[in-house]
Amino acid sequence: MLILRLILVVVTLMLVVSGGMYVLTRNRRYLKFAWQTVRFTVLLLVMFGLLFVLERYVLVAWRVLL
Predict the structure, then answer these.
(1) What domain range includes position 53?
(2) How big is the CA angle at 16 (ends 12 and 23), to the nearest 5 degrees?
């Protein structure tokens, strides 16, 4: 969980800086970077969530059946 918190803090800082750079320069590549960062973060969180569900329910159920 510590890794997830660290990732979320870094992503938040990246989004704030990217948004600030867009406001200052009006360059759309900063918005594109922010959107890619959000998509990657959501994908990463979904993967962590699936691994959590796998560990919690599937592997425990497998152990019960054996």
Answers:
(1) 2-65
(2) 160
